[in-house]
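Objective 1b: paired records.
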Amino acid sequence: MLECTDSCFVNTINVKYGRFYLMKKVVNVAPAYPYRGGIVLEEAYLYKIITSMGMDYKTISYTLLYPKIFFPGKTQYDTSKVIPFEHNDKIERIISSINPFTWWKAYKRIKQEKPDVVIFRWWMFFFAPCIITIAFLIRKNMKKTKIAILADNYISHENHWWEKYLVKATFRQAHSFIAASDFTAKQMRNDFPNKDICTTTLSIYDCYNLNRYNKTSAKEFLSINSKEVILFFGLIRPYKGLMKLIEAFPLIKQERKDIKLLIVGECYGDINEYTSKIKELNIEEDVMLINEFVANEDIEPYFVASDAVVLPYESATQSGIVMTAYAFRKPVVVTNVGGIKEQVLQEKTGFVIEDNSKENILSGVNAILDNIGKIDYAKNIEDFIDTFGNQKLKDFLLK
């Protein structure tokens, strides 16, 4: 990830824009710690990026994200002992997703800050009424403040027929957009051809690598003694194609005798569907399934112990799991859906397969594991992620 020291940043400003900052304060409306998950982690990285530019930063976060009845997991809160880029002094929890009075309160607090830019984090339609209301009030009453919407995905993975109406109504409030992939940027551009769009990437999630394990010690810690390990990591949801990977594993096992499938992540659904399939296929001894949301400090050994990360998604715009795998210099197998293929250099940092059929998953896994020692995946990943990062985002904010 490209970074810039304060002195470098000031010199850049002087050269490009004259003596003074064109923008000095950013308010980010987004979920933040103590909530958990990739959206929250991206808020922490955005804090790191913007403050490294010498700008003032504040997050207006939520007191309530999902009512319990709508949340499929065990908890919405992070119970980790290690919190990446902790910045509680920059976070104010004001917004309830279902209480319009708090939306007004959030607008009033943002108005007090007098920011140059407000960035709204978009991830699903449920939050459209809240974001529309706050953004509309800002746009109507704070003429000098610019509004940007930062989105990993434009339309959710569930893709309800009525969802696009809410999405377009929300995005219409913004002056510009920030997209985490070309795929998402193209979707936005189709509906809003005249708005500025900054295409960037997710951050490389290097915060999980605490350098406590090597491959041997990680496998010992996890009680894994197989020669090869492939990993599925992250929330277990139908669109992520885990069932297809489980069904493909007997084929993989036929060709690679000494291999284990490691499945790590909290299931948003019926875990019995997966455990029953594992039992039916008689692969219980070769599959380790850990049905839990893993604390930040406990993520490292799963990636260090693995040879490859397999993401057989049915749909995707991009993936924080790829960014985590790359932080550990692990190659990936991904399906050719959405924008996720933009994150992979074919036969260098991983393999893109056309779909998640059993045969294609087998082919992708074999392609990576057969070439360990022949392809320098770690070096290729290192070179590739040097082209990632947020320099485009920095330039966009400076504009």
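Objective 1b, second protein:
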Amino acid sequence: MENRMKKIVLLGVLTVVLAGGGYLGYRYWTSTHTATTQQMPAQAVDVMTVGMKQVNPEASYVAKIESMDKVGLRARVTGFLQEQLFKEGDMVKKDQPLFLIEKVNFEAQVRQAEANLAKAKASAVNAKAQYDRTKTLYKTKDVSAAKLDEARAANDSAQATVSEMKALLDLAQKDLEYTTIVAPMDGKIGETTFSVGELIGPSSGVLAEIVSINPIDAVFSVSENDIARLQDQFGTGSETEVTFVSATGKVYPEKGSINFIDVALDEAMNTLKMKASFPNPNNRLISGQYGRVILRGTQPISRIVIPMKAVQRDMTGAFVYLVDTNNTIVKQVVQTGLELPNFDVIIESGLTGGEKLVVAGFQKITTGTTVQPVSVQ
């Protein structure tokens, strides 16, 4: 019994000792961990001071090369194609003969019209003489008023016939002229659809097409959101330099200029059509070719510019992280403008200048985080 009591007392003492040791150990770990946590340094982030910058804004759009003018050549009279005076793909000049239609029938029609005119003129001379004699006889009461009226009507009819024959001669001469089909403008002529010897006429369709190539247009569309931005940052078209870059990335050496801005938005696409004209003396730009036009303002403007990498995006739009006076991260919503070379972007609203902008270390911060800002250029 005594030994049993000694074991119970010893077990109680051991329990107290273990409990006390565990409590002291917990207090020691808690105080040590808390001290360690409080002593962790703030996260360092790279920041730059936001400021204004003189820039020449640029904007880039998908573009298609199109000829300023395109004409389909058609026959105005019916006849057999006698001769083709060009090679497909040739450069042609305005009024250059291109096709010849057999002239024999048309020359005969001109001679017939000339003969008819001569006959009508002779009849008109006779009718005029008869009318003059009848007027004289009427004054002497040798003929009646009815005879005078007949003579006057015959003279008027003869003069009208002369006018009619003149008109028919003009038409015959014009048809003869139309047997030579000429180029209506300077340009490049394409493939012909008819061969020498075939019968052609107004219903035959297009014989060949001529397209103007110098100058030539690059056609592109600007979204509604970009229109006001372009007007604000580029000014008038005369202050804008236009460059064409092919789909392969090759820069066309000649500079262009804006020559057309449509009067209304395309309702389906909500875009505004624009054209830029480029000199094309060597036919390096080909109608149907795709590429990009780069608009660049020639007059520098003052704008807030920040690195593109500083702009973050979420479901609500674009934003940046700023560091306030307490070195705390603040989220600031911004509206971005045109992108610039060197991966910069214009900020249209949200920043006024002087803010400390976070430019690196985004994965370790969030709104409300206390940081250690490190200034970078």
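Residues 309 and 359 are 7 Å apart (CA to CA). DSSP finds four helices and 24 strands in the chain.
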